[in-house]
Amino acid sequence: MRCIIVEDQPPAQRILKKFIQDVPALELVDTFSDGLSAMDFLNKEAVDLMFLDIHLPKINGLDFLKSIPDPPHVILTTAFSEYALEGYDLNVVDYLLKPFSFQRFLQAVNKVNVKHEGVTAKNNGNSLTEIYVKSSHEHIKVMVDDIYTITSDSDYTEIHLEDKMILSNEPLRHWVEVLGGNQFYQIHKSHIINTKKIDRISGNMVHLTNGSKIPMGRAYKDNFLKSILQ
């Protein structure tokens, strides 16, 4: 899992870097000392997990988290336990109270894997053909080719098919990991599209065969167009 650290204290940064280095499943992409720098990075890059301190300069960690439309999985780190309840209200994976041990760190990271169990997929050779989407208390089978768009809606994502919409409680980043590739592209911070459903591209809008019009975000447009028009 690609992860970032958002923490302004160098000693805490060093501890997190060491713990991440000791877990082969984690890849540290970058470290930030304030939320605004991290926000700029997240608008351009995809990560799976963020270790987020609450007491940060410029904007505190909770306000920063509330401002992100489609946050990655988040593990909060802080020396103050009184913020735990508010953190869980924001759907964070876990809450690490400083100082924490490597064992406690590992327990938090393992919870991220549990949250990924909301979808299972079946492959035909190397081609993904169907997925099972966890929606409320059901697992709904969806044929991949039937998907038009996947759209972020607050804490949920909407999977749009020809004749219905399925509400999933997985974030958009999860679907980038599961479906991202030659057929599915994220073209906006809130939208993934199935390129097989494109009718035409006009200006900054992608027109789909069902009549939907999806905007291309500035951070995604160039790479998307290069990939499909090459």
Averaged pLDDT, please? 84
| Helix segment tally | 7
Major sheet: order of its strands? 2-1-3-4-5
Number of DSSP E strands: 16
What would the principal axes of the Cα set say about the shape? globular
Overall radius of gyration: 19 Å
Proportion of residues in β-strands:
35-45%
Task: Report helical residue fraction.
Answer: 25-40%
How many angstroms separate the termini? Answer: 29 Å
Features:
single chain, 230 residues, alpha/beta, Rossmann fold, 2 domains, five-stranded parallel beta sheet, five-stranded antiparallel beta sheet, globular
Give a description of the structure.
The chain is α/β, with parallel strands linked by helices. Helices cover 29% and strands 36% of the residues. It has helices spanning 10-21, 35-42, 61-66, 84-89, 102-115, 172-179, 218-229; strands at residues 2-6, 27-32, 49-53, 73-78, 94-97, 119-124, 127-135, 138-143, 149-153, 156-160, 165-168, 184-188, 191-194, 198-202, 205-208, 213-215. The strands form 4 sheets. It has a 5-stranded parallel sheet. Strands 11-10-9-13-12 form a 5-stranded antiparallel sheet. Strands 6-7-8 form a 3-stranded antiparallel sheet, with no helix packed on it. The longest helix has 14 residues, at 102-115. Residues 116-120 have low confidence and may be disordered.
